[in-house]
Amino acid sequence: MHNKLRIALIAGAAAIAAACASDMATSPAASRAAVAALASAPISFDQIRTSFVGRSSESDGFVPGVATSGDNDDADKQEGEHGPSWGGLMGGGLGEMWIGGIGFGPGLGRGPFDDFDDSNACTFNATSKRVECATVTRNGLTIDRSFSFLDAANTVEQAFDPAKTNTVNVQNKVSGTVTHHSTATSTVNSSSDFTVGGLASGSTQRRVDGKSAGSENTTGTRDGVAFTVARTAGDTTTGLVIPIQNGERTYPTAGTVIRAMQATVTKAGSSPSTSSRREVITYDGSATAKVVITHDGVTKNCTKPLPHGELTCA
Description:
Radius of gyration: 20 Å
Oligomer: single chain
Number of strands: 16
Number of domains: 1
Mean pLDDT: 82
Number of helices: 1
Helix content: under 10%
Structural class: mainly beta
Low-confidence stretches: 1-29, 67-81
């Protein structure tokens, strides 16, 4: 059964620095390849709950000099070795649920952070008090999922109940090895832990809290040159509040999202180069989110109209 989720992050996450910009003059120590590696999320991030827009297909692994990008409005399209600019967000962009891009449909619980499925060989474990799903292997990735369901009195439920469930915790873990671009092999490890509240009938808002984190380590050759790429990414969502309006898209009115990413690219015969980026997104009840970006030590204050307005930086 397709259930309603309001996912909140509370997963283990690495505290990671992050950076990147197309303004290369502000990042003299970072090579174009290291900056470009921040434009897309690590492989497997589409299998966890995260504000990054991730993918897992063969064509989306990062290789120096090869274009990769997410499909979100905030994602900058790479060409050659260009990373996200001051006019765009890293890691494929900011997910639709974090910008008010998903509306509340008919039926209880339908809307942002309600998309989960516990029907695929998932059973209740009386010891862990969680609904645990059978391990799935897909495209070289091993995927584990589990859920916790609570009613308004925080009583454990053995399954999602559209009439009573108020809080859902979703935990995802992904690991494996993916071959892409013929000559590149990436080993990935990622996880997320989200808790979403306000699903019960009569709720006026959803609250989301949680974390995600992951790493991707790649070896390969490009134009006859051997390379390695190490990428880490993580985010923390705290107190994200989304008002419930049936049939309407509503953007977050409170909360903070902290996103961080770092990439190190080493090509044979060259010294390693590293670039990092950190993005702090704050919602204050207005139709504009405040975004503070720190890229390789350079900080800018930016704004983003919700849901799909263009990011602009001072």
